[in-house]
Structures are given as C-alpha cells and as structure tokens.
Amino acid sequence: MMCNASLITMFFLSGLNEAKNHQFTLFSLTLLCYCVIWLVNICLIVTIILDKSLHEPMYILLCTLCMNGLYGTVGFYPKFLWDLLSPVHVISYSGCLLQALVMYSFACSDLSILAVMAYDRYVAICRPLEYHAVMSKQSLIKFVCFSWLTPFCIIALNIFLTSRLKLCSPCIARLFCVNWIIVQLACYPAETIVNNIVASMTIIIYVFHGLFIVWSYISLIKMCIHSIENRSKFMQTCVPHLLSLFIFLVAILFDIMSMRFGLKYLSQNLQNFVAIEFLIIPPIMNPLIYGFKLLLSRCK
Question: What subcellular compartments does it reside in (predicted)?
C-alpha cells in the first residue's frame, strides 16, 4: 500500500474492464456521439452569433449553455476515446485532477446557466416593463461571468483540498476521474473532514440553484394561468428550458446515485452509462430542443 500522495503519479481506471471485447464498437459509437455533440452545438452557436435578431439575453444564455457543453465534453471524450484503443487505462495524477475540475465545473456551470435562464424568463413574463433594465447588457455580462467563474472557483477549491491528501491506492473504478472517489482513497479519513465540509457546502449551493429554478417556474405558472398572452409566451420560451432542465437534473441525479450509492446491483456497463449520461444527453439534446424551436419560429 502506498502511503504518500507523491508516490502516486498515475491512476488506473478500471471502468472499461468488462468492455474489452467491444472496444472498437464502443470507439465508433463514442466518436460518432462526440462528432454529433460538436456539430449540433457549433451550428446553434454560429446561428446565434450570425443572426442579429437572436442577440437577446435568452439566446445569448443559450449560446453560453452550448459553449459550456463543449467545454465539459472536452474533459471526457478525447481521453475516453484514447482509452478505448489502449490496452492499459491510466491517467496522470495531475491529469486526473484536471479532468475532475473540468467535468464538475461544467456540471455546476450548467445548473448556474439554467438558473439565470429561469430568472430571465421570470422577468420577461412577470415583470415585462422592467425586462430591458434588469437584463441589460452589463447585467447579462455579470450573469454569464457568475455562471462560469463561480462554479470554476468552487470546484477548484474542492480539487485543491483533494490535492493535499495522502492517498493509499491508485485505482479508480470508473471511466473517468471523480473527486469524491479520489477523496475516498485517502490513507487517513480524518484528513478528509475539510473536504467533506466543502463538498457539502458545494452541494447546498447548487441545491439552492435548483430551488430557485423551481420557485421561478411556480411563479411563472401562477402568472400564466390567468393570461392567454402569458400562456403563449410560456409555451414558446419556457417549455424548451424546462425540457433542458429536466434532462440535466435526471442525468446528474443518476450520476450522484452511481457515485454515492455504488449501484452495485447494476452491471458494470450499465453503471458506466449512468455515470456518463450527463456528458451524452444534455450536450446533444439542449441544442436540438432549442434548434427545433428556432426552426419552428422561423417557419412561422
């Protein structure tokens, strides 16, 4: 057993052990999925940038959501594709921490962006006369910076606390690096108290994000019940957002269940899919949902 973190220069990822006979099939499907993610997100980003009529807060936030999706998938897919063609699945110590930072700052940023989008729809429908003052260019820049920088700093703090731990094992039973699992490899559990406190605070912060989104949509639904015009606005702009939110929350819930409770009764392959669902479905479905909405609005 290794008792010093400095001795661990590599981590071994064992999530692909049961898929060795299907590696080339998985490689082809994963490469196709990654190409689709880039295609649909880039198409929507370019459309929003080039069409001046879409230079509105809602679409700028959507553009931010798509960019964040590309950022998050870059942290997983290239390394995963390499592992599918490699007989040994390893990652450097620093590379592992960097991957955890990218993937979980992406997930937290997604929730922050969805919260800002919910606030944008709340102001647009419930306080229409104040909309342009509240969602001004300066305010939008602040919201976007908040959605990207705050999650990055919070997750970076979690990763920094992990980097100070002495680890006793280089084995990670996942397809990718997960901060919570790295913390569990600590030689001395007493050293992880600060990690657990900060991790709990991080979870609480993003639970409040979720509660804010729920509150904003409850307010919107109450407002829209009594107005045909507001009902129409809700259907056009909020339903796609609700679909994106539902897809994201289901994906994250499965990942948390897989990470915290193990789900050992599931096969390794199914556990793998549950773990990476938030890197497959939201990055593909978000641009498709909003792209379909844009297509419908242009046809009208």
Answer: Cell membrane
Residues paired with residue 92 on neighbouring β-strands, in sequence order: 10
**8-24 residue pLDDT tens:** 888 988 877 766 777 88
Please state the CATH superfamily assignment of the domain spanning residues 5-299 in this structure: Rhodopsin 7-helix transmembrane proteins (1.20.1070.10)
pLDDT of residue 1: 39
Give the CA distances from residue 148 to residues 62, 65, 256, 261, 270, in Å, rounded to whole numbers and listed in that order. Answer: 13, 10, 21, 29, 31
Cα 29 from Cα 182, distance rounded (Å): 29
pLDDT tens, 214-255? 888 888 787 777 766 666 666 666 777 777 777 777 777 777
